[in-house]
Amino acid sequence: MRKPFVAGNWKMHGSKAMIASLINDLSRAWQQGDKVDVAVCPPFVYIDYVQRTLNNPAIKVGAQNMAAEPEYGAFTGEVSAPMLKEFDCRYVILGHSERRSLFGEDDDLIARKVEVALNARLTPILCVGETLEERDAGITEQVIERQLQAVIDRVGGDAFADIVVAYEPVWAIGTGKTASPEQAQAVHAFIRDKIRLLSAEAADDMIIQYGGSVKPGNAMELFSQPDIDGGLIGGASLVADDFLAICNAAA
Ligand code: PEP
């Protein structure tokens, strides 16, 4: 039995005042940690503040990105895996579509980051997903396959037992358009089947989140699909009641 996992991707949002209120509300109200793993992923500068404000051990913290360099060095503006570990990060989002499209991150760079994260014992949340043009062209599976293959080539299939994959159709992120539960399930099953060819154990264990305009009103139906093991939540993770409702829907 896989334990569902819901993570909030705050993107470039937050202030100390907003975070104090959000984290206090989440800390007080989240009570289903035995059924669902939950994490919040603030911008780097707020990670320590979130850790110090959190008052609920069932809520973990992740980062939204990480350097591909394993240690430290002359890499202005970068943050390394050991730095995230020092601040008790459990997870790191890698390959989000905004990193791919706005910051030029390609499959190879993302695969290198996944390897660095695994070596540092951080759990990567590896985002994959197709654009609307790619879906319309009927190449969704080819795109997902290419994105996964780059990571497989670097870390192998067994490693997916320790990788969370987030299927995020680009056309559904922040747009209010959600993939239907059937559309999402089909891609999730494709991802699991691809890993199953390499490692049945990893395929059974791996968490595959859905991301893209998940809201309290659609979360339960999405999460009830057999291969959807929770969600990566953007906008709705900034509102305590909405994020809690989504986390509870995964229980
Ligand atoms: C995301 O950014 O990962 C995301 C899924 O955003 P939203 O929930 O706002 O669509």
Kindly describe this structure.
- The mean pLDDT is 97.
- The two termini are 13 Å apart.
- The protein has 11 helices and 8 strands.
- The chain has helices at 16-29, 47-53, 81-86, 97-102, 107-119, 132-136, 140-155, 181-196, 200-205, 216-223, 240-249, and strands spanning 5-9, 37-41, 59-63, 91-94, 123-128, 164-167, 208-211, 230-233.
- Strand 1, helix 1 (16-29) and strand 2 form a beta-alpha-beta unit.
- Helix content is 43%, strand content 15%.
- An 8-stranded parallel barrel has the order 1-2-3-4-5-6-7-8, surrounded by 6 helices.
- It has a single domain, classed as Aldolase class I (TIM Barrel, Alpha-Beta Barrel).
- The protein is α/β, with parallel strands linked by helices and 251 residues long.
- Residues 9, 168, 173-174, 211-214, 232-236 line the site of phosphoenolpyruvate.
- Phosphoenolpyruvate binds next to strand 8.
The overall average pLDDT, rounded, is 97
* Rg, nearest Å: 17 Å
Order of helices and strands: EHEHEHEHHEHHEHHEHEH
Described by the principal axes of the CA atoms, the overall outline is globular
Q: Distance between the terminal alpha carbons, to the nearest Å?
A: 13 Å
Helix proportion: 40-55%
Largest sheet: 8 strands, parallel, barrel
Count of distinct strands = 8
Widest sheet: strand order?
1-2-3-4-5-6-7-8
Number of helices: 11
Poorly predicted segments: none
Structural class by SSE content: alpha/beta
InterPro entries: Aldolase_TIM, TIM_sf, TrioseP_Isoase_bac/euk, Triosephosphate_isomerase, Triosephosphate_isomerase_AS
GO molecular function, one term: triose-phosphate isomerase activity
Active site: 96 (electrophile), 168 (proton acceptor)
GO biological process, one term: gluconeogenesis
